[in-house]
Amino acid sequence: MTRVYAEGDTEATGEVLEQIPTDIAYRLSEHTYELAECQNSLAFPEELPRYENG
User: Fold this and answer.
1) What is the Cα–Cα distance from 54 to 43, expressed in whole angstroms?
2) Distances (CA, A) of 1 to 24, 28, 32, 35
């Protein structure tokens, strides 16, 4: 299990604060699939969609 959190004061809020840990989790998942040499691996897009104000 991997946990990512912001400790202390941060200037990031809203979508930015959500996007960063999402991107980290995405890249970790992508890397894990490569290391495990999954037979039915997912086709990971080059970049995740960005969170938007909403």
Assistant:
1) 28
2) 13, 11, 12, 16
